[in-house]
Amino acid sequence: MRTAARVCRDGFRAGVWWFNSILGGQDYQRYIEHLRRRHPDRAVPTEREYWRQRHAEADRNPANRCC
Predict the structure, then answer these.
(1) Is 41 helix (H, G, I), strand (E, B) or coil?
(2) DSSP code of residue 25
(3) CA-to-CA separations, 38 to 1, 27, 67, in angstroms, rounded
(4) What is the DSSP letter of 65?
(5) pTM
(6) Across residues 40-61, what is the average pLDDT?
(7) Which of 55, 57, 32 is nearest to 45 (CA)?
(8) What is d(CA 32, CA 40) in angstroms, rounded to the nearest whole number?
């Protein structure tokens, strides 16, 4: 019984991780890591500022989306 519960739990976690990846849930954290590694002198935006900039860029350059 414990094995079945563990398999279900692991499957659920994998599904959450996958869905989060599709929606870009880790993008901000990866961006912060990039800034700190490659541009340590640049100010780190808040998460809200990051998403605003990202959506504004997508609106300026709509070539990479389907609609």
Answers:
(1) coil
(2) T
(3) 48, 16, 33
(4) S
(5) 0.64
(6) 93
(7) 32
(8) 10
